[in-house]
Amino acid sequence: MRLTPRPSTTLVLTTTVASSWLFERTGMDNITTNFWDVLLWSFWFFIWFAAIFVWVRCIFDVFRDRDLSGWGKAGWAILLILVPWLGALIYLIVRGRSMSDRQMREMAQVQQQQEEYIRSVASGSGAAPNAADQIASAKSLLDSGTITPEEFEALKTKALA
């Protein structure tokens, strides 16, 4: 397909016979008929997607780093914005190892918080959190006369098990 200007400066859409026949016959234009063009387009799409992912990861890491000063963050941000791909490459070379160390530290902290939360929820389900508290609770029930000494011994044995 090509646009050819007419003398009256109006653009008219014209096509070649082969591309017109192909489009009418299959509903596809020339760009989608060549497998290697599609493969090359897919490759470049993947490269752009990966590059954008790395760039965004570097930007997030700059602002998550608590050890980096405000001026350091500003400098890296300017470099990553003005020359994004070169800036991301330099950032990965200079700070790549500390980037992974920070990520591992954050993951360990999140896992620890999750385990603490699970423990707090599990212990807050009506049962006493540890054996000493369970025995103290059973002793108060025994002293108030709510349970018998045999029941107290059974609860104590269960708490210590």
What is the ordering of alpha helices and beta strands? EEHHHHHH
Global morphology: elongated
Number of domains: 3
Hey, roughly how much beta strand do the residues contain?
A: under 5%
**Cα-atom radius of gyration:** 35 Å
Percent in helix: over 70%
Major sheet: 2 strands, antiparallel
Distance linking N and C termini: 83 Å
Q: How many strand units?
A: 2
Mean pLDDT: 81
> Structural class per helix/strand content?
mainly alpha
The low-confidence runs, each spanning 5 or more residues with pLDDT under 50, are: none
Count, helices: 6
Strand order of the largest sheet: 1-2
Q: What does the model show?
A:
The chain is elongated. With 161 residues, the chain is mainly α. It has helices at residues 17-26, 35-64, 70-82, 84-123, 131-144, 149-160; strands at 2-5, 11-14. A two-stranded antiparallel sheet has the order 1-2. β1 (2-5) and β2 (11-14) form a beta hairpin. The chain folds into 3 domains: 1-32, no CATH class; 34-126, no CATH class; 128-161, no CATH class.
